[in-house]
């Protein structure tokens, strides 16, 4: 039997043939990064390899790093391995990592979603012998409605609030979800105000060539009448913080796949849950796995046990890697747990 | 059904009381009475008899969704609600049904009445016709309950505002409205119209009054309540709160859940008939022997079954310990001051002199003396003291703003123990998907000095939402093994548990059973090794094997 191309090490996923790690959680010499969310892209590695599309956002998150970039599909020989990156459709620059050694192909998905959202390159299926898949929403209760419907609903809600003279606050992860929502807003309804953490990522998106509508900062001192028609995008950590006080009696909404479940919605205590996720839902996970043609699937972070069992029952050879990506918590949906961007994390684990 | 589904969504989404009342008001104003009748019933917490067993519902749902049973179980673990789980996994509907609510309740009745073999097909055809929101409600109604975070009080307020009828009148009628099983008594637009009709004469029947509830006293009474002379003190009994209603040749006993429990206490019914017509006592049902209360566990044996045998009646004798008089000679006494109702109560019970109808004695003294009495609570088998303002009227529910009129429970401090979190289970409803129900252990020290953790109590209340999320995250990161919905956790977290009583219990592995355990605080300062021992807990047991309920 051949040895596995990618194995689990204490530092993270490791490819011995190329002597590099994928999204390692401890400092290593050479890291291939699938995307710039904090649980996948960490500081302290010697050298980084990531997609060219994600260069600006990665630098915005990690600062001055030794970064080499690849276009999607471009091949790079590292040791005995041939590495290429392919769009994962999760956030700007997100990539699946394809590793080939002597004709055997493994693909590590990072985080992915199948529906094209207009703010990043859309997911592309990659044929593989072994596919390492995330499983954040790997239960059949998670099924998303099309983005166009969700955005139309959001715009209707905003318009109704604006007509009633209340600002509309959307809590969404500062990197990815926020820009996706922003790109889908009907900006003739009113002004769009972004929290500083969101605006920092907006800048990185715009610098990367993604068109986003004009946004304003609270520091501009918008007048009260205008603010009452505004849609505000803020990170989840802003909920309940003093920053929110300026919006008075506002309506709020939390945009996350977790909002699919009533208990999670009620815990969030917002007026509305917008079931919008940057991860694949159950049908999409199954479709993606099928399209790789992989006979072997290794499941990481999320609903690991049920996914593994289900895939085995479907006749695949399924196993699991216990990673430190995401976790099962409410806010794991592309959570930003970066000190600089999300100043307080009320949901964090015990200190 | 869609209109009701929209109301449900509005109630479910909002955290504001005002918005909820307004949403219900708008719904009732526009809804035909035959639908409103059911909406009131289910919103106010009325139960429907289960129309199909949960197992059948789950199996049929799994089959229709094309998923194996185990995966549906996994989904249920994540969602925490079977009705919702099924609504989420079923394939999209084929029709778009919007029959009115009462028609769907009729279909539920048909489902309930159907032979077991016909139920799956009925379920399937209903699911095919309903959209996701209506499906969820339909499933909820099949399993009997709605639980939408609306209290009966809010429903009362909404109806009162729609109908222009005083909230008290609605509240009183609502008790009877909810107490009769619609499967037996029927439900109709007429019943709804009667519920919101202008108040009439002599329509009281055997209905109780809404219970007045007490607040826990958190401060020293001298600071919170002022002069002790303004207050009446009584023991806080550990029994079943009830109203004994005596009207027109009949009597009834209502528990605090406004549930009729007359049949379980026939001897109290006999005693009540010796009272003059047109009176209502408020008090506590207690298991009682030789002039003192028996532990609550004894009383519990009387309430777990619907009819009671002679033998049980003899082995667990009960009394009604009255502390308030709400009605006398058919007159509502609730607006009268506490002291006046008290006087009339004592006069009434002295006259009737029935050994099962006791008057809870007043305890006099300044705050210092009362504190001394309170300290004796455990020895007397009571939970502490009740403090009631002398000149206050009898209120409705748990009155919030006006501290002057409130009843206060001044309980003795609970027993406490530092225990280690050992197992966790996911919660339901608002806590769905969160590990919120915990099993705690203390150290058992063997003769050779070796120590093992022995589970002894379950608790799921006392933490803030933020603390619970943090504990949940710890559990997920430190799970040792999963057994279905339960997981074992690396024994590291220590909590201070409070509990009210302790009894020897051969049924428990630890040999003890605690009453009302709950988390008082998370001892983040304490390592597991410093948690308490079983031996220390057992030392609290009195020689007879129990300590009184505190």
Automatic annotation (TrEMBL), chain A:
Residues 323-351 are annotated as: Disordered. It comes from the Bacteria. One of its GO terms (molecular function) is RNA endonuclease activity. InterPro entries: MBL (IPR050698), RibonucZ/Hydroxyglut_hydro (IPR036866), Xnuc_lig_assoc (IPR026360). NCBIfam families: Xnuc_lig_assoc. PANTHER family: BLL1145 PROTEIN (PTHR11203:SF49), CLEAVAGE AND POLYADENYLATION SPECIFICITY FACTOR FAMILY MEMBER (PTHR11203). This is Beta-lactamase. It comes from Methyloversatilis universalis (strain ATCC BAA-1314 / DSM 25237 / JCM 13912 / CCUG 52030 / FAM5).
From TrEMBL, chain B:
One of its GO terms (molecular function) is ATP binding. It comes from the Bacteria. InterPro entries: ATP-dep_DNA_ligase (IPR050191), ATP_dep_DNA_lig_pp_1105_fam (IPR026333), DNA_ligase_ATP-dep_C (IPR012309), DNA_ligase_ATP-dep_cent (IPR012310), DNA_ligase_ATP-dep_CS (IPR016059), DNA_ligase_ATP-dep_N (IPR012308), DNA_ligase_N_sf (IPR036599), NA-bd_OB-fold (IPR012340). GO terms for biological process: cell division; DNA recombination; DNA repair; DNA replication. Its EC number is 6.5.1.1. Residues 311-444 form the ATP-dependent DNA ligase family profile domain. The keyword Signal does not apply. Coiled coil: none annotated. Keywords: ATP-binding, Cell cycle, Cell division, DNA damage, DNA recombination, DNA repair, DNA replication, Ligase, Magnesium, Metal-binding, Nucleotide-binding. It catalyses: ATP + (deoxyribonucleotide)n-3'-hydroxyl + 5'-phospho-(deoxyribonucleotide)m = (deoxyribonucleotide)n+m + AMP + diphosphate. It holds the Pfam family DNA_ligase_A_M. It is an enzyme of class 6 (ligase). PANTHER family: DNA LIGASE 1/3 FAMILY MEMBER (PTHR45674), DNA LIGASE-RELATED (PTHR45674:SF13). This is DNA ligase (ATP).
């Amino acid at each position: 039997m051949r040895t596995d191309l990618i194995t689990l090490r204490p530092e993270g996923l490791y490819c011995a043939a190329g002597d590099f790690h994928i999204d390692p959680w401890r400092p290593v010499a050479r890291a291939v990064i699938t995307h710039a969310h904090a649980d996948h892209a960490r500081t302290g590695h010697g050298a980084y390899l990531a997609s060219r599309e994600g260069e600006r956002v990665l630098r915005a998150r990690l600062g001055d790093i030794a970064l080499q970039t690849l276009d999607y599909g471009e091949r790079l020989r590292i040791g005995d391995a041939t590495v290429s990156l392919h769009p994962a459709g999760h956030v700007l620059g997100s990539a699946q990592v394809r590793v080939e050694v002597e004709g055997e192909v493994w693909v590590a998905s990072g985080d992915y979603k199948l529906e094209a959202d207009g703010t990043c390159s859309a997911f592309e299926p990659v044929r593989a012998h072994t596919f390492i898949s995330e499983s954040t929403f790997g239960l059949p209760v998670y099924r998303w409605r099309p983005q166009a419907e969700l955005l139309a609903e959001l715009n209707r809600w905003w318009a109704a609030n604006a007509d009633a003279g209340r600002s509309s606050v959307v809590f969404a992860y500062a990197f990815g979800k926020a820009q996706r929502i922003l790109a889908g807003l009907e900006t003739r309804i009113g002004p769009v105000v972004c929290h500083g953490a969101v605006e920092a990522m907006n800048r990185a998106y715009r610098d990367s060539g993604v068109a986003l509508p004009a946004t304003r900062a609270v520091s501009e001192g918008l007048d009260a009448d205008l603010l009452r028609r505004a849609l505000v995008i803020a990170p989840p950590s802003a909920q309940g913080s003093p920053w929110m006080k300026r919006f008075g009696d506002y309506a709020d909404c939390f945009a996350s796949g977790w909002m699919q479940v009533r208990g999670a919605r009620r815990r969030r205590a917002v007026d509305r849950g917008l079931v919008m996720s940057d991860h694949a839902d159950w049908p999409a996970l199954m479709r993606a796995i099928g399209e790789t043609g992989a006979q072997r699937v290794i499941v990481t972070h999320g609903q690991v046990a049920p996914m593994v069992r289900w895939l085995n029952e479907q006749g695949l050879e399924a196993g699991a890697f216990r990673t430190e990506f995401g976790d099962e918590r409410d806010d794991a949906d592309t959570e930003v747990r970066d000190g600089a961007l999300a100043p307080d994390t009320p949901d964090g684990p015990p200190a | 059904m869609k209109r009701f589904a929209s109301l449900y969504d509005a109630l479910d989404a909002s955290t504001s009381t005002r918005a909820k009342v307004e949403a219900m008001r708008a719904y009732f104003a526009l809804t035909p009475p035959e639908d409103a009748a059911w909406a009131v019933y289910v919103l106010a917490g009325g139960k429907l008899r289960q129309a199909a067993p949960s197992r059948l519902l789950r199996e049929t749902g799994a089959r229709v969704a094309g998923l194996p049973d185990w995966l549906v179980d996994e989904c249920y673990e994540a969602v925490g609600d079977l009705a919702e789980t099924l609504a989420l996994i079923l394939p999209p509907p084929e029709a778009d049904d919007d029959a009115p609510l009462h028609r769907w309740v009729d279909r539920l009745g048909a489902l309930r009445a159907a032979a077991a073999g016909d139920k799956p097909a009925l379920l399937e055809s209903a699911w095919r016709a309903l959209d996701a929101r209506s499906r969820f409600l339909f499933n909820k109604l099949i399993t009997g309950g709605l639980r939408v975070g609306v209290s009966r009080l809010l429903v009362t307020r909404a109806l009162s505002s729609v109908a222009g009828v005083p909230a008290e009148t609605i509240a009183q009628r609502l008790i009877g409205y909810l107490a009769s099983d619609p499967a037996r008594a029927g439900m109709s637009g007429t019943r709804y119209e009667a519920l919101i009709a202008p108040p009439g004469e002599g329509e009281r029947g055997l209905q109780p009054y809404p219970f007045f509830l007490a607040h826990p006293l958190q401060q020293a009474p001298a600071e919170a309540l002022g002069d002790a002379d303004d207050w009446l003190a009584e023991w806080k009994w550990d029994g079943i709160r009830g109203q004994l209603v005596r009207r027109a040749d009949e009597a009834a006993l209502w528990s605090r859940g406004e549930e009729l429990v007359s049949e379980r206490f026939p001897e109290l019914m006999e005693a009540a008939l010796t009272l003059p017509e047109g009176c209502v006592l408020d008090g506590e049902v207690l298991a009682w022997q030789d002039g003192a209360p028996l532990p609550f566990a004894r009383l519990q044996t009387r309430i777990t079954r619907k009819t009671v045998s002679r033998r049980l009646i003899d082995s667990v004798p009960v009394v009604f310990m009255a502390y308030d008089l709400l009605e006398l000679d058919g007159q509502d006494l609730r607006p009268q001051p506490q002291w006046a109702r008290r006087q009339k109560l004592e006069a009434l019970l002295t006259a009737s002199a029935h050994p099962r109808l006791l008057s809870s004695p007043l305890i006099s003294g300044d705050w210092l003396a009362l504190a001394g009495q309170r300290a004796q609570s455990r020895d007397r088998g009571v939970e502490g003291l009740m403090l009631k303002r002398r000149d206050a009227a009898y209120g409705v529910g748990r009155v919030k703003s006006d501290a002057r009129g409130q009843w206060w429970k001044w309980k003795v401090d609970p027993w406490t123990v530092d225990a280690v979190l050992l197992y966790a289970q996911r919660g339901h409803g608002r806590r769905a998907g969160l590990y919120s129900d915990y099993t705690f252990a203390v150290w058992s020290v063997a003769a050779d000095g070796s120590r093992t953790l022995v589970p002894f109590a379950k608790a799921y209340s006392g933490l803030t939402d933020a603390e619970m999320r943090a504990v949940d995250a710890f559990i997920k990161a430190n799970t040792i093994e999963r057994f279905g919905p339960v997981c074992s956790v690396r024994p590291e977290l220590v909590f201070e548990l409070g509990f009210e009583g302790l009894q020897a219990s051969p049924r428990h592995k630890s040999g003890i059973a605690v009453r009302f355990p709950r988390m008082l605080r998370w001892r983040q300062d304490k390592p597991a090794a410093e948690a308490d021992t079983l031996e220390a807990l057992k030392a609290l047991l009195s020689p007879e094997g129990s300590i009184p309920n505190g």
